[in-house]
Specification:
Elements lengths: L2 H11 L13 H4 L8 H12 L7 H8 L1 H33 L6 H10 L3 H4 L2 H39 L5 H15 L9 H22 L18 H12 L2 H9 L13 H24 L16 H15 L2 H16 L8 H22 L4 H28 L9 H32 L1
Length: about 450
């Protein structure tokens, strides 16, 4: 019997169910969350999840999409992403209600939906759980290795320039690893709120510095593309989806809320967070491309003057924002790993095992960052296969299977809408995978 089904039996045997009627079971009332987060703390985490270094690549997205389509395409992409977050969290909540389980994570939601869905899909419940778990592990841990290289490179550029030294990037990666090893020992999501808050502040300041340089001279819209070429559309959507993607954090932060009913409310956490970052994406993307045109590079700080400390500090602040986000990034994969192994460890040794596990994972990621050059194309491929499917396809599939066959509304409009989302997700997934493979082939041949 798999873990989430065992959890169902435990909940029933513990007598936590007030009634056998599904309609009377409220999973929120049966949650026993240690150190729950307030709605404000959840908002901070959610914004940090979506406000990563991807925002600094938005001018490149607009370079590929054009000024007019860039605005429209960004709004469209963030609306789609916000809706998918609602689909995933809403399906998870309904699966909790149907299965009479207080809380489910991403992979457990997939397992429960398939286990209670159409007969032909039920045998794949365990496979779905394994797929979600392992794709989250692969994407998150590879991302940490890339972030180590990003942070190390930013520290090298700024510190070496200011102190007139020539330390290698690996030295800074090693120093960064020590700090990360300490941050990742924080186990409670609530205690990671200050780190997310600091990271948000750093990223907003970096954002402001970039805008300062963008508007330091008059911005002209002349000689700027307004609409994309067809061949540039996959790149545009890949960058935007990468920038906003934080699907791995959607259920963990909701599951730790003191008032989870505020999560999907019309004026709740999800809508406020995504509305805020969407405005920031459009502002930096539109004016960044309008300012630098065809000279727009992969990240805004790369377009800033290389001999000015203020300009370099934007890249440094972005790197520090990522550094303070590592704990949040580690939370999901470590929880998955711990769920896999904790039953095999003597409870008296759980604390030592947790420390060892976290240090071991950090060490492996650091070794990967130090020894494998050109890691970015592989994280791009893993992101296309993993994040692309987990973000754009799996939530839509789960919602469809949960509603099957008669819960699609008038004229089955929800089914038609889900098919459309599935086509869009497949386009982004296939295009992202294709271009990632081309990057790898180009580098190694």
């Amino acid at each position: 019997m798999n873990s989430s089904l065992e959890k169902l039996e435990e909940v029933r045997s513990d007598g936590n169910i007030a009634t056998n009627d599904e309609d009377d079971y409220d999973p929120f009332k049966h949650r026993q969350t240690r150190k729950p987060n307030t709605s404000t703390e959840t908002l901070i985490h959610f914004i940090k999840g979506a406000l990563g270094t991807g925002i600094l690549a938005m001018p490149l997205a607009f370079k590929n999409g054009g000024l007019v389509f860039g605005v429209v395409g960004t709004i469209f992409s963030t609306i789609v992403y916000t809706h998918i977050v609602h689909l995933l969290a809403g399906t998870s909540q309904r699966a909790c209600k149907r299965s009479k389980i207080p809380v489910l994570d991403f992979s457990e939601t997939a397992e429960q939906v398939l286990a209670g869905g159409p007969l032909r899909f039920r045998r794949y419940a365990g496979t779905a759980k394994i797929y979600v778990d392992y794709m989250l592990l692969i994407v998150r841990f590879l991302s940490v290795s890339v972030y180590l290289v990003f942070i190390g490179t930013a520290l090298r550029d700024v510190i070496n320039y200011e102190l007139q030294i020539s330390w290698d990037t690996r030295v800074y990666i090693g120093l960064t690893t020590i700090i990360i090893a300490a941050i990742t020992q924080v186990r409670e999501l609530k205690y990671l709120v200050p780190f997310s808050l600091i990271a948000n502040v750093f990223m907003v300041v970096a954002f402001a510095i970039c805008l300062y340089y963008i508007f330091s001279e008059p911005v002209s819209l002349e000689n700027r593309e307004h609409w994309p070429e067809l061949s540039a559309l996959p790149t545009f959507f890949s960058i935007v989806v990468y920038a906003i993607d934080a699907i791995a954090n959607v259920l963990p932060v909701e599951n730790k809320m003191k008032d989870p009913q505020h999560y999907l409310h019309a004026c709740g956490v999800v809508n406020w967070a995504n509305g805020t970052v969407t405005i920031m994406y459009i502002v930096i993307g539109f004016f960044g491309y309008a300012r630098y045109g065809e000279d727009t590079k992969g990240s805004v700080p790369l377009n800033l003057p290389s001999d000015e400390l203020l300009a370099k500090s934007a890249q440094l602040l972005a790197a520090l924002a990522i550094l303070f986000t590592i704990g949040l990034f580690f939370y999901v994969p470590i929880e998955i790993l711990w769920r896999m192994i904790n039953a095999k460890i003597d409870p008296k040794r759980h604390n030592v095992a947790q420390v060892t596990l976290r240090l071991g994972v950090v060490a492996v990621m650091a070794i990967l960052a130090l020894t494998v050059p050109q890691l970015e194309p592989f994280i791009g491929l893993a992101g296309a296969l993993g994040s692309g499917s987990l973000t754009l396809l799996v939530p839509v599939l789960l919602d469809t299977l949960f509603r099957w066959p008669n819960d699609f509304g008038w004229m089955k409009w929800k089914l038609v809408k889900n098919v459309g989302l599935g086509i869009f997700g497949t386009f982004v997934l296939v295009a992202g995978t294709w271009f990632s493979v081309l990057d790898i082939v180009e580098i190694y041949t």
